[in-house]
Design a protein that fits this description.
Blueprint (H helix, E strand, L loop, with lengths): L3 H10 L18 E2 L4 E2 H22 L9
Antiparallel strand pairs: 1-2
């Protein structure tokens, strides 16, 4: 698995050292969740996706301005 944090840092430097590895550091990384055994970044992304889907549903149910006009 490629680490998103290392990948973003590599792209931001624009040096692009071809020898640099952006592979997951697992237990050595501060973003690694020991209990679940996976990267917290992926959990954050999934939670944001779920919140976006819920927000989209809510926005569809809200009253529109035209409904209050006479």
């Amino acid at each position: 698995m490629r680490c998103p944090i290392l990948e973003i840092g590599w792209m931001q430097t624009k040096i692009g050292d071809k020898g640099q590895s952006s592979d997951c550091l697992k237990e050595e990384c501060a973003w690694w969740h020991r209990t679940h055994g996976k990267c917290v970044i992926h959990n954050i992304a999934m939670n944001l996706e779920n919140l976006t889907a819920a927000n989209t549903l809510l926005c569809g149910k809200l009253a529109h301005e035209e409904q209050f006009r006479k």
